[in-house]
Amino acid sequence: MKIKSKHYQTIWELNESVIQVIDQRHLPHQLVIENLKSSSDFEAAIRDMHVRGAPLIGATAAYGIYIACLEAFKSPDFDAYLSKAADRLKATRPTAVDLFNLIDRCLLQIGKKTDAKQKIKVALEEARSICQEIKDHCYNIGLHGVSIIEELYASKQEPINILTHCNAGWFATIDYGTATAPIYEAHKRGIPVHVWVDETRPRNQGARLTAYELGQEGIPHTIIADNTGGLLMQKQRVDLVIVGSDRTTRTGDVANKIGTYLKALAAYDNNVPFYAALPESSFDWSLRDGVQEIPIEERSSDEVKYMGGLDNEGKMNSVLICPPESPALNYGFDVTPSKYVTGIITERGVCAANESAILALYPEKISL
Ligand code: MRU
Question: In this structure, which residue's CA is closest to atom 10 in ligand 1?
């Protein structure tokens, strides 16, 4: 995807001991590239949201495991060092299951080797193949999801208005995005689309990141305050909702950025199709009841009480927006039960949000 017409991914290798990422905290005002050189750099980058979005969190952790292997090589006990580093990486954020799925996948491959140099080699290969796979999966989500937009356009013959929440765009993945991939594909095919971008308080990933990447790709869009979607749906100004997911159960319950559930309820009440777009790495095959079982991240109340942005002098600044003594509560995610989800868009196809339809796409997961 493009920034000022230059092609970027969200993460790449500078060399075999330095991994570079876009530090997303500064966007859209500054493009800051960060070097990650130690496993603690990776922990901080994920925990403090320099990188964010479920697939990218998982890909970054995979490179973190590789860098931890380089560190483990210099330690007295390779396996013990790596296992502690993996636990620390897993402790950074609780909701996005890609973090756990992809770290475990790396550890499984590394565990097949006995020689330390071979372990390092396999760790690097696995991180590379995870990044490539996320990219391919997102591209294929676009190819499958575009048919939903094409169908709507065939009957409406007017620009299709799509509402999205948070950033499930290329900033949340390696490239293309999940929720945005069908939108980019539709745009490429000449279907007129317009995107309603929920600002997504408190960290404003919609206003800061989704609006920015849609703008860079030349896609018409409008930022709306988080509470606007319901009104727009009642006024038939939303044809389709597409969101991403941080963790989806095998039964089709979808955890995504806080506020997604309310959009799903409004969509349900107004007969607006509501889709979640996600790659395989965002499924949690061990869970059946998302509302009861998905761990919900709680972040600092300061994220609610302060807002950051560019001040009049062009400097990044943060301001207090409430009485300093008022407490605030900051849950990062909510769960939309499958009954409100019209369908799930995956790299293998689009399916209904229920266990048998999902497992028909992923038959190898039946026995898990
Ligand atoms: O807290 P974040 O920014 O990591 O959360 C990301 C999201 O919730 C996105 O909406 C998303 O859909 C999951 S990543 C494609």
Answer: 166
In Å, how far are 64, 147, 159, 236 from 154, measured between CA atoms? 46, 10, 11, 17
- Is residue 52 lining ligand 1, measured as CB closer than 6 Å? yes
What sections of the chain are H helices per DSSP?
39-47, 54-73, 78-90, 98-111, 116-156, 181-188, 205, 211-216, 229-234, 260-269, 290-293, 302-305, 355-361
Q: Cα(69)–Cα(109) distance, rounded to whole angstroms?
A: 13
Residue whose CA is at the smallest distance from ligand 1 atom 12? 244
Q: How far apart are CA 240 and CA 150, in angstroms?
A: 12
Give burial (CB, 10 Å; 0-12/13-18/19+) of 300.
Answer: exposed
Active site residue 246: yes
Q: Write out pLDDT tens, residues 289-339.
A: 999 999 999 999 999 999 999 999 999 999 999 999 999 999 999 999 999
The tokens for 150 are 């094409």
Angle (CA) 38 43 45, round 5° = 95
Distance 314 CA to ligand 1 centre (A): 28
| Distance between Cα 256 and ligand 1 center (Å) | 6
Is the CB of 166 inside a 6 Å radius of any atom of ligand 1?
yes
What are the backbone angles phi and psi of residue 96, rounded to the nearest 5°?
Answer: -65, 115
Distance 282 CA to ligand 1 centre (A): 11
Task: Name the pTM for this structure.
Answer: 0.97
Tens digit of pLDDT for each residue in 21-34? 999 999 999 999 99
Ligand 1 close to Cβ of residue 54 (< 6 A): yes
Residue environment code for 10-47, b if the CB has 16+ CB neighbours within 10 A, otherwise e: bbeeeeeeebbbbbbbebbeeeeebebeebbbbbebbe
C-beta 95 within 6 A of ligand 1: no
Count the neighbouring beta carbons within 10 Å of the beta carbon of residue 237. Answer: 15
CA of 332 relative to ligand 1 center, distance in Å: 9
Q: In three state form, how does the secondary structure of 114-146 look? A: CCHHHHHHHHHHHHHHHHHHHHHHHHHHHHHHH
Distance between CA atoms of 251 and 261, rounded to whole angstroms? 16
Residue of 196, 197, 193, 220 lying closest to 208 (CA atoms): 197
343, β-bridge pairs: 275
